[in-house]
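Reviewers of the previous submission asked for a worked example of the structure-prediction workflow described in the proposal, so we include one complete record here. The input consisted solely of the amino acid sequence. No template or homolog information was supplied to the procedure at any stage.
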Amino acid sequence: MLVFSPDEAMVIAVSHSKAVLPGGRISNEALSDRMFRHFYLGMTRAKRNC
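From that input alone, the workflow returned the following structure tokens.
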């Protein structure tokens, strides 16, 4: 399972098609839509709780 920091999460959310992370580039295929949705929903829920 991949764990992202808030900064990395923003990079992924903004440029989901070609997110540039410290470990290199992650393609759309590597970061599946399902995983992205799950992660994005988790972020939005966390923001609402705050």
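The chain has a mean pLDDT of 64. We consider this example representative of the routine output the project will generate in years two and three.
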